Amino acid sequence: MSDHRDSIHCRTCPEQCWATPGGRLVQEVSVIMTDDPDLDDRQSRCWLPPAVCTLTPSQARELASVLLELADHAQRIGARR
Predict the structure, then answer these.
(1) Inter-residue contact 6 to 31 (CB < 8 Å)
(2) Which end of the chain has the lower number of beta carbons within 10 A, N or C?
(3) Distance (Å, rounded) from C-alpha 53 to C-alpha 30?
(4) pTM, full prediction
(5) What is the mean pLDDT of the chain?
(6) Is 25 contained in some domain?
(7) How far apart (Å, rounded) are the C-alpha atoms in residues 12 and 19?
(8) Do 34 and 9 touch, CB atoms closer than 8 A?
(9) Which phi and psi (to 5°) does residue 7 adopt?
(10) What percentage of the chain's residues is helix, strand, coil (to nearest 5)?
(11) Across the strands, what pairs with 7?
(12) Residue 6 contacts by C-beta under 8 Å, 6 or more apart in sequence?
């Protein structure tokens, strides 16, 4: 089952910074997915509370790469129609 969200936000927060065993600082990236409870189409689905996950810089880069690939694919499909 899939949950559909109305918006997604990404943030960095100084409190989400940690040091590796080698002493290198790592800043995590927060990904926050939310619903807008004021939208009119709520009869077809229920409102969900915010969902938050944190990603390391390498995980954030991997996600960004996959999103870019999917956007390119979607754009090519749209150009054919």
Answers:
(1) no
(2) N
(3) 6
(4) 0.73
(5) 87
(6) yes
(7) 16
(8) yes
(9) -155, 160
(10) 35, 35, 30
(11) 34
(12) 34, 35, 36, 39
